[in-house]
Amino acid sequence: MATQEKQPHGGSLTRPEKGEVLNPHGRPKKLITQLKEIGYHKSQVEDTVNAMLTMSRKDLEKIDKGEEFTILERIIAGALLKSHDKNSLFNLEMLLTRSQGKPKETIDQTIESKNFTITLNLDNDNLSR
After folding, report:
1. Is residue 52 within a helix (H) or strand (E), and if so which, with residue range?
2. Which of 121, 87, 18 is nearest to 129 (CA)?
3. Does the CA dihedral 67-72-75-76 come out positive or negative?
4. Which residues, other chains included, contact 14 with Cβ-Cβ below 8 Å and sequence gap of 6+?
5. Domain boundaries, the chain
6. pLDDT, tens digit, for every residue of 41-66?
7. CA neighbor of 96 nearest in space, from 109, 83, 85, 113
8. Based on C-alpha coordinates, what's the Rg of the chain?
9. With a threshold of 0.85, does the pTM exceed it?
10. Using 50, 70 and 90 to split pLDDT, how confident is the model at 102?
11. Is the pLDDT score of 100 beyond 90?
């Protein structure tokens, strides 16, 4: 059984016993991974995401609750609504990255070079090795 250790800041730290796992199911899978496991292809997900990103909240709520829509549409609508409710851009960013690709990143870099000299001794003795 895990033990609780009090910390100087007032909180506590849970220390598991040897061999004990505190998170038996691991990290939750991301949305795109879940959709691929169901059997959707990347192009299907991209097309659906692009179409649904332009919809109003009212339309997304209809899709999220409607039985006549595909599971793909319902999952994406639910993810977008959840992001909106939490004021979070995580799901939106992930969906845009998957459908549009990441923008190119630029880096400002300054390189200071120093002159140096390389001398090659190319006589017959060194070439025969």
Report:
1. helix 42-52
2. 121
3. negative
4. 2, 3, 4, 5, 22
5. 28-100
6. 878 877 888 888 889 999 999 999 99
7. 83
8. 27
9. no
10. confident
11. no
